[in-house]
Amino acid sequence: MGNNTEKMKGLMVLIWITNLLHLSMAIWLNLPKSGTKCVSEEIHPNVVVLADYYVISDEHTSQEPTISLKVTSPFGNNLHQSGNVTHGQFAFTTHEAGNYLACLWVDGNSPKSSEVSVNLDWRTGVAAKDWDLVARKEKIEGIELELRKLEGAVEAIHENLLYLKTKEAEMRTLSEITNARVALCSIMSLALCITVSGLQLLYLKRYFHKKKLI
User: Fold this and answer.
1) Distance between terminal CA atoms of the chain?
2) Residue 52: half-sphere exposure toward Cβ, Cα within 13 Å
3) Nearest one of 75, 73, 44 to 170, comparing CA atoms
4) 155: which of 23, 43, 101, 112 lies 20 to 30 Å off by Cα?
5) In this predicted model, what pLDDT tens digit does every residue of 185-214 receive, in sequence order?
């Protein structure tokens, strides 16, 4: 009975990890005629990002609305930019940790309409990997391919945990530095108040002696 329970738990873990392989951030955006909409995701370094986007138009006209898109890194570097398009794709590998931003807007020469709907399929890490290409290149299939996918998912989870651990250490160090600076500032403020009070007492004492009040 115990062995069956352990097997069931193991199977549930494998199913859960397998589901991670199919996770991607599919977003439906309604772009106004004027203005920009942006989406962002916090990603750590050395992660592959792949995204597809396309305009969904309900108006059956000869001229479909077109959009422009710009993707920037946390430091403001331009990673991808396109204009006057109805669909497209971009891919890059992250080099620094932080929020990666994708901004979309409707081109000015598009047909008049209230809003333009855009589907953005944003995939990172294991979800962005071309497993069909891996299978053909390494000549693997079936269970062996699924095990490779599971291995990739486990590695991605491990890297995310290490990244979170690093961020936690950085936040803890920043908190300790801030607390030390606040304590130093408090001590300096107290010392300044004591010094000013002492000087005021000395001044008043000399003033009263000069006026022969004491």
Assistant:
1) 96
2) 6
3) 44
4) 101
5) 999 999 999 999 999 999 888 888 887 766
Contact 105, 53 (CB under 8 A): no
CA angle 11-165-146, nearest 5°? Answer: 30
- Rounded Cα gap, residues 71 and 92, in angstroms: 10
The Cα–Cα gap between 145 and 143 comes to 5
The Cα–Cα gap between 30 and 55 comes to 10
- The residue written with tokens 């000069």 in the block is 210
The DSSP secondary structure of 11-70, one letter per residue, reads HHHHHHHHHHHT--EEEEEEEESSSEEEEEEEE-SS-EEEEEEEEE-----SS---EEEE
Spell out the SS3 assignment of 60-119: CCCCCCCEEEEEECCCCCEEEEEEEECEEEEEEECCCCEEEEEEEEECCCCCCCCEEEEE
Name the token pair of 71.
């993707």
As a whole number, mean pLDDT of residues 146-169 equals 82
